[in-house]
Amino acid sequence: MSSDRDYCRSKASRADLSDTRPLVESRRAARLPERIAQHRSPQLALKVAPLDRAKFRDPQRTATGALRASVHLRSLDTLWFNTGTLCNIECRNCYIESSPSNDRLAYLKAAEVERFLDEIASGGWPTREIGFTGGEPFVNPEIVPMLSAALERGFEVLVLTNAMRPVMRPEIREGLLAVRDKYADRLTLRVSLDHHTRANHERERGADSWASTLRGLHWFVEHGFRMCVAGRTCWSESEEAMRAGYQQLFDREKIAIDAFDPHALVLFPEMDERIDVPEITVDCWGLLNKSPDDVMCASSRMVVRRQGAAEPVVLSCTLIAYDPQFELGPTLAAADREVRLNHPHCAKFCVLGGASCSV
C-alpha cells in the first residue's frame, strides 16, 4: 500500500469523479410550492475506485499511522449561513444532498442570522463577507430579510443560487430589486451552471433545467445585479477548454462575464465521499507547497439549524453538514478552534482541489 507521503507527491488530479449516490430517501413534507419542485436528474453509473474503509476513521491519525493535518481559524473572513437543504431540484451529485424532500437542515430564521451578525460585532471578528447557501436559498421564505440584515451592516454578501423558479416568484423579484436599489455594489449572486452545454448541465441537474437557469441569468443581467457563475470540473476537459466554452456561451447569450477570470467563473472540483482520495498528513503541507492558512476552514465557518434542534450551530465549513465531528458549537466563539482534516472532502476539494466557496 502506498503511504500518504507518496499520495502527496502524486498531487492527485481532478479526475471525473461524478457521484452516483442513490436518490435521497423521502423525508418530511418539503413545504415547497408544487410548481417549483419539478426537476430530478437521472442517476448515471460510473466505475471508480471506492474509498478505502480504513481511511478517515481516526481524527488524529491516518490509516498509515501518520499524524493527520489540522487547521486553525486564522481569521473569520467569511461566515456562511445554510438557509436549509430544501431545493427545487435534485442534482445527480449534490454534496449536501439537497432536494425537494431533504429538510435535514431546517430553514434558518432572519432573527437567527441577526444573532450571529450581532456576535460578529460584539466579538470584534474581522468578517468581510456573509455567504448564503442551501439547498436553494431563495426557497427560504425569509431570505430577503436575511440579505438586508447582512447588507445594512456593511458586509459583502454572496448568494449561491440555481437562478430557477424560486428566484422568479414575484415576491422574491420585488425583494431583490429593493435590495439592489440600496446595496447593488455589495451583493453578488453566484449562479450554478454546471457546463457550457445544455446536455451536460442537464445531465447533472435534470431535464429543462438549462432553459430555466438561463432565464434567471438574463433576469439578473437585465436588472443590473452583480453576478458570477460556478461550474464543475468533472467533464474530462482541460480548464482552458472549459473556460473557452463558457466564454462562447456568455458571448452568445450577451452575458457580460469574463470566463477567464477565476473569480467570475469559478470551476469546482467534483466531490463524492465514497470515492478513494488521499488522506492529508502534516507532511503534506511542505510536499504540496501549501499552507494550512489557504484551506477554507482557516477563514470561514457555516451556521446551520438541524431539523428539530432548538438553536443553530456552527460548522467548520460549507461542505460537511452531517458529520458531528465538524460541529463546533452554538456560537462563533465556541467555533474558534482547530479542525482535523478527517473527511474526504477536506482532501478532494480543499487541499488537492485548491477550491474555496468564498469569492
Descriptive labels:
9-stranded mixed beta sheet, 10 helices, 359 residues, 14% strand, alpha/beta, disordered N terminus, TIM Barrel
What does this structure look like?
28% of the residues lie in helices and 14% in strands. It has 359 residues and is an alpha/beta fold. The protein has a single domain (4-15, 66-351), classed as Alpha-Beta Barrel (TIM Barrel). The strands form 3 sheets. A 9-stranded mixed sheet has the order 9-8-7-6-5-3-10-11-12, with helices on one face. The radius of gyration is 20 Å and the shape is globular. The chain starts with a helix and ends in an 8-residue tail after the last helix.
What is the percentage of strand-forming residues? 5-15%
The third-level CATH topology is TIM Barrel
Class by alpha and beta content: alpha/beta
Radius of gyration: 20 Å
CATH homologous superfamily annotation = Aldolase class I
Task: Identify low-pLDDT runs.
Answer: 1-46
End-to-end CA span: 38 Å
Tell me the domain tally: 1
Nearest-integer average pLDDT: 86
- Major β-sheet annotation: 9 strands, mixed
Order of helices and strands: HEEEEHEHEHHEHHEHEHEEEEH
What would you say the CATH architecture is?
Alpha-Beta Barrel
Question: Using DSSP, what is the number of strands?
Answer: 13
Helix fraction, binned, reads 25-40%
CATH classification class: Alpha Beta
Supply the number of helical segments: 10
Main-sheet strand order equals: 9-8-7-6-5-3-10-11-12
Anisotropy-based shape: globular
